[in-house]
Amino acid sequence: MESEQPLLRAIGVRKRYGGTEVLRGMDLSVHKGQVVCLLGPSGAGKSTFLRCVNHLETIDGGQVWVDGEPIGFRLRNGKLHELREREVAVQRRDIGMVFQRFNLFAHRSVLENVVEGPVTVRRIAPGKARESGLALLDRVGLADRADAYPVLLSGGQQQRVAIARALAMRPKLMLFDEPTSALDPELVGDVLEVMRGLASDGMTMIVVTHETGFAREAADEVVFMDDGAVVESGPPGQVLEAPRHQRTRQFLARVLP
């Protein structure tokens, strides 16, 4: 794996909001098929980094490359020039994102939510998109709710629909921004089980989470962030059980059961 070009390569990524620098030279490489979990305190820059990966936020410095292509920019004459929004939207087709909140279309059924992107963005025939959408809903355990509307679903069910919707675009990379943080505790397990299944199937994933149990079981690499940069990273057993950095030890002492 190390000999292959990373699917995601972030180099020196910086992001500032006004006078506050949220990302201070973030470096991260993720290879195809890897699951990387980002841990860290609130305000560490984890969610901001994910939003920079798919150019929902414009970076102020550094570079983000996905599958060899600079995200949000075009390299011309040795310089990076920001793409127009329409061009960025084309790049985002290959990067799925699941947010803390589900962001489903309330006026559309579960299946309609799932097939909207493939039909309107990827120009997949409606019949084929519907067939694939039903298969994805079956995968996340919601085939029997295809015709229901989001208001009739629990938070955990809505989040599983959001995952199916992202998968329907056939992304190369999936980003999860604290996907269980808005859920009641008894609903968390179903969402994590779907994510474990994706990991087992070889989906490349970056997951911002406070679920250390999931990180221990599913991640290939755990990255601890603080103050807008990587403090340490490594296999789950090393970072979670024997962290090298004092700041990591302090954080884990508060969050590990």
Short structural description:
With 257 residues, the protein is an alpha/beta fold. It has 9 helices and 12 strands.
Shape: globular
Strand order of the largest sheet: 8-9-10-3-11-12
* Total number of beta strands: 12
Q: Quickly count the helices.
A: 9
**Largest sheet properties:** 6 strands, mixed
How large a portion of the residues is in β-strands, by DSSP E?
A: 25-35%
Straight-line N-to-C gap: 33 Å
Give the radius of gyration: 18 Å
Structural class: alpha/beta
Helix share bin: 25-40%
Mean pLDDT across the residues is 93
SSE order: EEEHEEEEHEHHHEHEHEEHH
Low-confidence stretches: none
> Looking at the chains present, what oligomeric state does this protein adopt?
single chain
Give the topology, please.
Blueprint: E1 8-17, E2 20-30, E3 35-39, H1 46-53, E4 61-66, E5 69-70, E6 73-76, E7 79-82, H2 85-92, E8 95-98, H3 110-120, H4 126-139, H5 155-167, E9 173-177, H6 185-200, E10 205-208, H7 212-218, E11 221-226, E12 229-234, H8 236-241, H9 246-255
Parallel strand pairs: 3-10, 3-11, 8-9, 9-10
Antiparallel strand pairs: 1-2, 1-4, 4-5, 6-7, 11-12
Polypeptide structure, described:
The protein is of the alpha/beta class and 257 residues long. The chain has a domain at 104-170. It is built from nine helices and twelve strands. It has helices at 46-53, 85-92, 110-120, 126-139, 155-167, 185-200, 212-218, 236-241, 246-255; strands at 8-17, 20-30, 35-39, 61-66, 69-70, 73-76, 79-82, 95-98, 173-177, 205-208, 221-226, 229-234. A hairpin with a 2-residue loop joins strand 4 and strand 5 (69-70). Helix 3 (110-120) packs across helix 4 (126-139), helix 3 runs parallel beside helix 5 (155-167) and helix 5 (155-167) packs parallel to helix 6. The longest helix has 16 residues, at 185-200. The protein is globular, with a radius of gyration of 18 Å. The relative contact order is 0.17.
